[in-house]
Amino acid sequence: MAKKLILLAGLLCSSTLMLSAQSISVTDIDKKGDMVSVLINGVIEINEIELQDGKLVLPAYIPDSGERQPVVRFRTKEAYDVVEEAVRTNRPSREPSKRINYQITKLSPFDREGSSLKAFAEVTFNGVLDVDVKVMESQRDKDLWISWPARAPDKTIGERSWVDQVKLINRRVKDIVETDLKESYQEILKAGPSVPDVKVNVREGVIDTPLTVTNVEVEKKSAGADLLAVASVDLNYAVRINDIRVYERRGQTFLEFPVSVSDTGREYDQMRIFSRPLRNEIRNAIDTGQPSQEKYAEVGFEISKFDKFDRESSLKYFCAVTLNQALEIECVIIDGAKYDAFVSWPSEKVDGGYNDQIIPINRNLREAMEAALLKKYRQQP
């Protein structure tokens, strides 16, 4: 997934060379009124840049909430300064470069039945320039295609078609990057979680049926390390908990369940176990590598937390659902993008995308929980 390219003197070849920020250069510039377009390294065209109070205003997506969401970002001040100087002086860089490499730094599938959007992605060029893209699926022939940043036309000024905010003008580079994105998305689908073919009875409300382990996978780690194993378990054929870590310290073993780590390093629990029998079932399944002897295919759920996020953001609510009075799972409601509000389940950001930490693997349960959460969200004043 982390392929890189070098374009030198018009020749395209593969390479593992990582380029410095100085290799980001403005090879062409075009100013129309207050708007500026720049060409980065002869390949990446960024349109509708403005200079306000001495600072660059980069093209962005603006949802209904009005919060600007930039579709391009600079990772270093050096790269920002190169573009800022070109825009301020209306001149290309003095030492232009046409070398380019890239890496897919985010690829997060969007699982919504009937949606043509299949994944949110991010491509990083030369290690310093991030561009948001989307993996889409044609409704007619189901072929995948890549959507680069663009905005809707402003009909008040006579625009009739979508306006490109970012595009790759070199066809060979564009084809290779887009092929990589599509193949990487397909690889993620192939490696997705296996879903048991078991009918699960789902209902909203409190039930007394216990949660037990219906499947377990354990990956042993190297001897001598504190981390003994990493495991995943399925509960009642309906929910999968990944990345359960087994540690040994001072002669004792203990389990560490998935957490969310903030930018400041603070950890937040993604789940809570209220039932000692369930905790024992999970521990025994991981120790033995075998599921519980008693297996159930029934899940009842209730919304146990619904807290509003009081900031201008696409994140709207912190929520939690409790299953069978034994397990509480954190989730959030996202809204404000081009697509309808949706529920995001616990995941961890990794190179190239996100790993599911806790996820409903039974479609009926997932749809029922998400419908209940979104109904409650739409009922809010």
- Oligomer type: single chain
**What would you call the structural class?**
alpha+beta
- Please give the number of β-strands: 31
Helix content: 10-25%
How is the biggest beta sheet arranged? 6 strands, mixed
Count of alpha/pi helices = 4
> What is the average per-residue confidence, as pLDDT, rounded to a whole number?
86
**How many distinct domains?**
2
Structure at a glance:
By secondary structure, the chain is an alpha+beta fold. It has 4 helices and 31 strands. Strands 17, 24, 25, 26, 27 and 28 form a 6-stranded mixed β-sheet that branches. Strands 3, 4, 5, 6 and 16 form a 5-stranded antiparallel β-sheet that branches.
Question: What can you see in these coordinates?
Answer:
- Strands 17, 24, 25, 26, 27 and 28 form a 6-stranded mixed β-sheet that branches. Strands 3, 4, 5, 6 and 16 form a 5-stranded antiparallel β-sheet that branches. Strands 9, 10, 11, 12 and 13 form a 5-stranded antiparallel β-sheet that branches.
- By secondary structure, the protein is of the alpha+beta class.
- It is built from 4 helices and 31 strands.
- Mean pLDDT is 86; it is low at 1-22.
- It has helices at 77-89, 171-190, 276-288, 363-378, and strands at residues 5-8, 11-14, 26-32, 35-40, 44-52, 55-57, 60-61, 69-70, 72-74, 102-109, 117-125, 129-137, 144-147, 150-151, 163-164, 166-168, 201-204, 213-220, 227-235, 239-249, 252-256, 259-261, 267-269, 271-273, 298-308, 315-323, 327-334, 342-344, 347-350, 353-356, 358-360.
- It has 2 domains: 5-190, no CATH class; 201-378, Stage V sporulation protein G (Arylsulfatase, C-terminal domain).
